[in-house]
Design goal:
heterodimer; A: 209 residues; mainly alpha; 5 helices; 2% strand; B: 877 residues; alpha+beta; four-stranded antiparallel beta sheet; 10% strand; globular
Chain lengths: 209, 877
Amino acid sequence: MNNASMTISMRWTDTRLLLLGGALTFLVAFAAFSALLGGPNGPAVFLAGAAASLWATGCLLWLSARGLSAVTDKDEQLEAEAVVGRRRKELSREYHLLKRALKELELDRQMGKLSEADYADIRSLYRTRAVRILKVLDEREAAVYADRIEADVQKLRAKSAQKPSHTSPANKAEERPTILAKACSECGTRNDLDAVFCKQCGEKIGGMA
Amino acid sequence: MTQNLTAELGSFVLLLTLILTTYAGGAAVASARRHSPPLFRSAVYASYACTALLSLASCLIFFALLSNDFSVKYVFQNSDAAMPWFFKVAAYWGGLDGSMLFWAWLLSMFSTIAVARNRERHRELLPWVLAILMGILAFFVSLVVFYKRPFDTFLDTVPAVGKGLNPLLQDFYMATHPPSLYVGYVSASVPFAFGMAALITGNLDDSWLQSVRRWMLLSWYFLSQGLILGALWAYHVLGWGGYWGWDPVENAGILPWFTATAFLHSLMIQERRGMMKVWNVVLVVLTFLLTMVGTFMTRSGIVQSVHAFGNDPELAARFLAFIGFAAVFAFGFVVFRLPRLRSRADMESPLSREFAFLLNNWVLIGSAFFILVATLFPTLSESVTRNRITVGPPFFNRWMAPLGLMLLVLTGIGPLMAWRKATKGLLWKQFRVPILAAIMTVVLALSLLPQVRAKTSFMHEKIQLPVSLVCFGLCAWVLATVAQEFVVGTRARMASLKLDALTAFVGLVLRNKRRYGGYVVHVGIVLMFFGFAGQTFQKENEVTLSRGQTTKIGRYQVTLASFGQSSDPQKEVVEARLSVRSGDQRFELRPAKWAYRGHEDEPPKTVVATHNGLFEDLYVILNGVDGSESVAGLKLIVNPLVLWVWLGFVWLMFGTAIAFLPDRNEPSKADDDKGRGDGPEIVSNTAPDQKPSLEARGRDVAVLLCVVASVFLHGATVHAATPGDSAMHQATEGQNFPTPPRSELERDLRRSLVCMCGCGRQSLAECTCGFAAKERSLIARLIDEGKNREQVIRVFLNKYPGESALVTPPDVGFNRLAWAMPVALLLAALFAMGVVARRWSKQASQARLAAQSAASPNPKDRAAYEQRLDDDLDEMD
């Protein structure tokens, strides 16, 4: 799935074109107008600014028109994503807010604003809710996992039906589908989901998946 | 030929911008309905292009201004060749057309920043955000294209010399106060756009709030800064001795400030409890609408003010139409989405921070509503009773004092409460020290400074209370609260994490930036209230001194040493050189009058001379010098505690900087990304709650640097706020030499009657214009004829329409509404709060029982989840 086409961020090349070109235009224009107006002064600066803005406008108009040319049908993926992702984001955010609330509750108790009884009361309320959210998130994740596993297995089956496998170890490793994997932040090797230490470099792999 | 090229290019660019803006808005809406990323991308780039185009147009205007291109009408009207370059730059926003262009430029820049920063999250909301922002931009650009065109040229003769910027505006403060205020106004559009997008899409979870908080904080900060700069300008330049006159335009500026403050507080309630969703959306909409109303009031001529850009009914009509449409659109959607906005949770106890914040919101909104109605009251009364009255500062002060005190009380209570419910038994321990501090302060003040007992009107003329004394006590109350929060928090952290004091303290602030940044802001507000309370003890004296003569005011002995005269290409200067002695201190003050060439039809300006001290300012106005130059008319004022208002603002700046930095415990972009619908990251290489990325850290540093730079700039400003830096206000002509009041009756009458010169609503005692001088001599004559107070007032009432000559409208008939209204509001608010609090407490206990009996995961699973929760919580430390 090519995510680049889904984003609205400018590609790195486009940004570079815009910014460097703009800076260049500004400097060239400033030199030119300073010469024309008899020395670098205020008006020259602003004319150079105008020139740079003109460059930027040109670039952006071109980018805008180019974007328009790619318009085809409704993007169903995006639509589906909006609905599914929304609920998940909501829960994820609520979980985060609950964690922060628990931290603040702790601070309030330490500062003597809450009695132990009240503290325990409210804490259990928050924790129950947080735990329930974790459970729901896991269930959703598992469901999505199942679909993804199925889709990837199908893809691999199709691929291996076409090409016979080579004996080189590198390909062998690739062949074995490490679909369920967690990448080590140090060396990038894919590890099993429940791995605690990286099998390649031995560093600890952080937190939850 | 180049000159016309600039103008033509400029006009073309603006027209192109209008087209692009419309396209961008339309494409954004289309992309939202069709779920088409390419279309949205096109819209986004088009909006970026609008920013580039408006920058281009602005550069062209700057070029025209700096190269003295008087063929462009705007340049002619607002600039001249002799002006220093920074005022030529300031002329960009000095005139009406330019200010609209400036607004559009700022809005386009903020749109670009808002969209670019949020491009990866809120993908559902963003098209609508862009559409709304482009809609607002289209309105302003259309004003500048069709109506108030800054690039219009003279068709025939090109004038050789410009009119010059209104000398009033040739001043550091006036160059910096509008941009700051505009930044504050314009940045309120972004939260509005997000709020509307959330309403339109129905996606009303809290994620839109997170992006919006910083924009609102930014808007709030620049509004505060703009208002303070305005106050500094009024104080040092306008020269009537005060810094806030409850002028309609000042009021228009403070209205969105109140709603923004209310939002920043009630936001916290929504984040923690999921409550007040409707309220928050309404506040965001209101803030935006009020910024529009502010702009509208300055330009429409609907109110009398020294600030006004002028009288333009057509422009007023356009603005009104826009505001009306926006209001209907916004509130319509609020009503439409009302079912989805209902909150999940309920308030459990009135002894909670939520309730304190709710009260705080009520007071803030109440203040805003009161100011709005009081500002519009003259217009209202005129349309209803055909009788125009003047609602002046005494009326405002009478009501804002109690409201301010209520806010101070709440500022002290809020931090000491816990969320959800505070334990009643522990409350006394929390409040012990602050209450003690307050009582001790009041006692100390009474014993050391007996004049602190001075009474002022409280809600009604007939109720006189020592408001300032109470204010001092409450200032101590709040400061003690804040200090306690810092100290106890540090101690708690030291105990639980086994740290030393300094590490614990720094850690405390950095882990809770919003809370402790907010506390620092509160300190700033308290210092400002301390400064405000000083106004009660203002002393003033009007004298006529001949050379060598000495007069006394407060601790100061003021002697007129000599006169001075000078001139430069722009103006002629007459000044009085005073030598002042106070105890061991000696210094010189030089109040002056500046007469600008080219503006001979206007009276010369008063340049005040001030000596700023920590406890009081000595403030001298030169009223006039008589023909033979041996006698000077002076007004001497002692303004206590004014410096604390400016110092308070510096604290406010620091607090805002702290609160602006992101909390580590905030949901970051990474967390939001986990919610991507295309499935969770199969290969996950980021740990949750990771250290902030390089980009994020860089951003923080940049923000911090900007703020620090701003702090230094302001420190330098306050320090360099020299007297006579620039001039303002009308002055007396030679013949109308001002005399001090000869009797109590005369002084009272001068204070009770308004100067109808159009300067604002200053009384005849304060206004230093020629018109006021004539009126004052009329009073003197009437008194000599033997008339009493009622008869003199009768003469003035007959002279001017309705009762507008009176500073305080008489308490009869329709005017009763003026004070009846706030009282009624207050009672209604109290009643509503009581009802709401009772209803919530009842529901709360039911909800809790329900929640506890709800199904929870079975015991085995639960342990695992509890462990995960604990791991997560540890990571947050």
